[in-house]
Amino acid sequence: MANYTIAVGWSGKDALADSDAGKVISGADFNTEFTAVQTAVNTKADLAGSASQAFSATTAAADTNTTQVATTAYVQTEIGAGKNGHGDRTVSTSAASGGSNGDIWYQVAS
């Protein structure tokens, strides 16, 4: 993806008086500038995206706790390790008991 960068130095012309012949802009200047804009726009991903513009990210190591993007591979690994973002949880076949502060107890049919 390319970001748009001004290709023609327009600021020098801005300071000239309207009657100054040097203030006239050539068609070639416009073409150069619009080509730069077109290149930048055409290399950006569409809002809907496509397979060739798919987002990708590096999968973090287990137990990573940063603002890094969490890939589905990372999330599946954490879930597989019994982690849900609220500490480890144990599923038991015994009757539910105890608990506080919003703990959730499960009883698994045996």
Report on the structure:
The protein is mainly α. It folds into two domains: 11-53; 59-110, no CATH class. 26% of the residues lie in helices and 0% in strands. The longest helix has 16 residues, at 27-42.
What's a quick, concise take on this entry?
This protein has 110 residues and is an all-alpha fold. It has helices spanning 11-14, 27-42, 72-80.
Keywords:
110 residues; mainly alpha; 2 domains
Total strands: 0
Q: What helical percentage do the residues reach?
A: 25-40%
Structural class: mainly alpha
Number of helices, where a helix is a run of at least 4 consecutive DSSP H or I residues:
3
State the shape. rod-shaped
What is the radius of gyration?
29 Å
> How would a crystallographer describe the biggest sheet?
none
Arithmetic mean of pLDDT: 76
Distance between the termini: 55 Å
Beta-strand residue fraction: under 5%
Domain count: 2
Low-confidence stretches at least 5 residues in length (pLDDT < 50)? none
- Element string (H = helix, E = strand): HHH
